[in-house]
Amino acid sequence: MAFLVITYGLPLAFRLPMVKDHLSSSVISVDVEDDLKTVAQLLSRNRITGAPVVEDGTVIGILSRNDLLRAICTVPTDASDQTKEESLDKIRATKVWKVCQDIGKPLSILPDASLLEATKMMTDRKFNRLMVKGQYSSMLGIITSTDTVFSLLGCDAASALSIETSEHKFGRLPSGTRDSEDSESSAQEELCGLGSAAGVQEWMTQTGLIVIPPDMNLRDAGLLLRAAVVTGAPVIDDGRLVGVVSRNDLLTGLLSIPMEANQAEFESEIARLQALPVRELMSPSPVTITPEVSMLGAAKIMAESRLNRLLVTSAEGSDDLIGIISSTDLVFALLGCGADEADADVAIDPRRLGNLYRPGIY
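The structure assignment produced for this chain is given below.
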């Protein structure tokens, strides 16, 4: 005779946070035959920076903002303005399959993998997102570096709502200049017809941008980034630029947690990282440009340095911060995504959606 034994009071076995508990299960996709301008408009409207690539209903890779940036960087900076604009027109009409580096070899992770495994894989490959795929199943969703960082550092959405971002803005925002909130995920100005030789001063986020003090702890910094909907910010000490901290810096910091950590070790490491001051993980020598640098010139610097943002200073070598330009700003601007298109309430083609459409930064 079999007996069912119910035991009370015993703790459940500890397990590290898992990918399947934090993935975006339904995402917008692009088709291999879409042109890059259409893709840029789709990403801009839905405030995301990458999407799975689909061919005949099958996911075959991921197209990212960096793929678009690399395509833009094929335009010669020493050509005439007319040649540059003609080259950009050709890029806007280029099909996805010609530029997506991951087609045929999408990088995926199992849903039962830990977030620490996802952290290591993204850091090693310098990716911001991974496909989540079962061993014998189709794509289940996407896990991003944003999901991973915010989840592990305890930067939940409810806590981020309590953050007053205005207290962390650099200077006072004059009328007519750009605010930093949402600047990395939406086009706020009319960008169609932008001259490729135009200086970044026309499109950078100026005063009012979000900044972080070097003694702020990592959890508070993560909450501030989440509340401001940005993935990185300058670090300012006594009005001087001393570094930059990004989602990827936080991701790298998480690598200090052992993969085989038990519950006590994991909780101890998380508490240590949450309390760590930003100065311990920030990049102390950020790449800077002056406002006269052209949009194409800035795009090339970002691509060559594998950066998602450039800090703009008043003069070369100066620590006098005056603005920031992100790769999202550049890509959406140079591929012709105007504010009217970005803000339009456009019906999404059902073929681009999963079964539970959920917008977000992925």
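Interim note for the steering committee: The chain has a mean pLDDT of 82. The CA atoms of residues 37 and 92 lie 5 Å apart.
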